[in-house]
């Protein structure tokens, strides 16, 4: 075992003698050492995890096969770069080594960038893309239309990732009525290729229990998403007997399964919205139809109310006596019609009974006769009950109209002390200023009529006497 010897505590590197050095002091000393000992550098590597901030600063990693280092290009310098920085681009950068003290990490502050050709991963991706495109795997003619209302969907993804949780949350929020089958598979690492291919095969084996399959994951770097650029996975997507939606990463991430799938969704969340959009549109159409139905019914009710109002006005204008006479006549007619219906029904039943009697002479009539007799008795009872109910209802309606008729009778008003004034031709006098001096009138009281003559009152105008 190798012995480990602690360095002696030094006063100038810490606080008071005997105290250890602070984190800030150590970080500052490391930064000063790196700046002094290394300073400006030229470094060749591949850009990864590129991130542009709203402030204009650009952050990325510079990596090779075994290591990586953080890099930052501040806004002023980034605006002057002649190279379009992007993930996978191999570059040579010039800058100074520095330490970002809040995190204690060292980084390159980039001053210049020179393009060094396509990165290894990007170049391999482009070569595979051209190869598969030449084979026709990406042709638009081979794309299938998605089901209009998919109710059974498979999702090949990691069951522990945030993508599947967002996918389920959006389907629930939009009240998708279907069934989701999660086919678990690793989405990065060495085993991701085989598990993604097996997940697609499992989805195909579930036909016709599935309508379509989604393959995808959340965002990440080019290396994180590399499993969806592997040839076996891309070929499995293109060969799937089920329609496939590729939903990998964020809006700006593009992988080869996007080209092989029948449809590309920008994110797993966008795929969930796409699947549920038809159901949401159908629900909106149903809600619109419901609103239209309510509007039509309300309009019909308004029209019927107006019709009822017109009928009510006509009723008020008609003579209650005439209405009562009409109702009495209708009651008589209904009584006659009901009687005729009863007689005809009885006659019909008797006729049927006679025919049944003829048939009974040739066959054993007892079972059928009992059944038909019971049915006949029930029909007769129902007919008499219906007749009785109808007569009672009409009688009640007539009885209800008699008080209203009495209330509307002008003679009831006269019996309360009022009188009606008419001209000799029978016209009613309703205004005083329409009476001429000396005009002969007739006043009707509750117990009879009395002829009168209007005289001139010098103070009040014409008055009757």
Name its key features.
4 domains, 14 strands, disordered N terminus, five-stranded mixed barrel, alpha/beta, five-stranded parallel sheet, 11 helices
Report on the structure:
By secondary structure, the protein is an alpha/beta fold. It has four domains: 11-118, OB fold (Dihydrolipoamide Acetyltransferase, E2P); 123-280, Rossmann fold (3-Layer(aba) Sandwich), CATH 3.40.50; 320-408; 414-464, no CATH class. Helices cover 46% and strands 22% of the residues. The chain contains eleven helices and 14 strands. A five-stranded mixed β-barrel has the order 1-2-3-5-4. The chain has a five-stranded parallel sheet with strand order 7-6-8-9-10, with helices on both faces. Helix 4 (162-173) packs parallel to helix 8 (268-317). The longest helix has 50 residues, at 268-317. The N and C termini lie far apart (145 Å). Mean pLDDT is 83; it is low at 1-5.
């Amino acid at each position: 075992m190798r012995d480990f010897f602690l360095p002696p505590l030094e006063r100038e590197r810490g606080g008071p003698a005997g105290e250890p050095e602070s984190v800030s002091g150590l970080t500052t000393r490391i930064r000063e050492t790196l700046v002094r000992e290394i300073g400006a550098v030229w470094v060749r590597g591949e850009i990864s995890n590129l991130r542009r901030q709203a402030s204009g600063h650009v952050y990325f990693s510079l990596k090779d096969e075994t290591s990586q280092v953080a890099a930052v290009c501040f806004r002023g310098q980034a605006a002057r770069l002649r190279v379009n920085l992007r993930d996978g681009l191999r570059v040579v950068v010039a800058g100074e080594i520095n330490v970002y003290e809040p995190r204690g990490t060292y980084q390159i502050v980039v001053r210049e960038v020179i393009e060094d050709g396509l990165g290894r991963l990007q170049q391999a991706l482009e070569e595979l893309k051209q190869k598969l495109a030449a084979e026709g795997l990406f042709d638009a003619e081979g794309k299938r239309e998605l089901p209009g209302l998919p109710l059974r969907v498979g999702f090949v993804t990691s069951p522990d990732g945030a993508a599947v949780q967002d996918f389920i949350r959006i389907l629930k929020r939009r009240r998708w009525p279907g069934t989701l089958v999660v086919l678990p598979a690793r989405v990065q690492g060495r085993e991701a290729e085989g598990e993604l291919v097996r997940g697609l095969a499992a989805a195909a084996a579930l036909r016709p229990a599935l309508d379509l399959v989604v393959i995808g994951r959340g965002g990440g770097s080019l290396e994180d998403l590399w499993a969806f650029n592997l040839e076996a996975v891309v070929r499995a997507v293109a060969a799937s007997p089920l329609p496939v939606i590729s939903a990998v990463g964020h809006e700006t991430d593009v992988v080869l399964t996007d080209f092989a799938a029948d449809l590309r969704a920008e994110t797993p969340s966008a795929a969930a919205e796409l699947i549920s959009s038809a159901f949401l549109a159908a629900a909106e159409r149903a809600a619109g139809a419901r609103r239209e139905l309510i509007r039509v019914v309300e309009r019909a009710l308004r029209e019927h109310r107006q019709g009822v109002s017109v009928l009510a006005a006509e009723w008020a204008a008609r003579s209650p006596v005439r209405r009562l006479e009409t109702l009495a006549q209708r009651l008589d007619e209904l009584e006659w019609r009901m009687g005729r219906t009863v007689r005809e029904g009885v006659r019909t039943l008797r006729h049927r009974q006679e025919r049944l009697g003829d048939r009974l002479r040739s066959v054993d009539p007892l079972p059928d006769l009992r059944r038909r007799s019971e049915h006949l008795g029930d029909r007769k009872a129902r007919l008499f009950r219906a007749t009785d109910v109808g007569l009672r209802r009409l009688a009640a309606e007539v009885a209800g109209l008699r008080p209203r008729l009495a209330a509307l009778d002008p003679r009831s008003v006269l019996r309360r002390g009022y009188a009606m004034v008419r001209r000799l031709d029978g016209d009613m006098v309703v205004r005083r200023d329409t009476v001429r001096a000396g005009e002969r009138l007739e006043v009707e009281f509750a117990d009879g009529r009395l002829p009168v003559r209007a005289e001139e009152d010098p103070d009040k105008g014409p008055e009757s006497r």
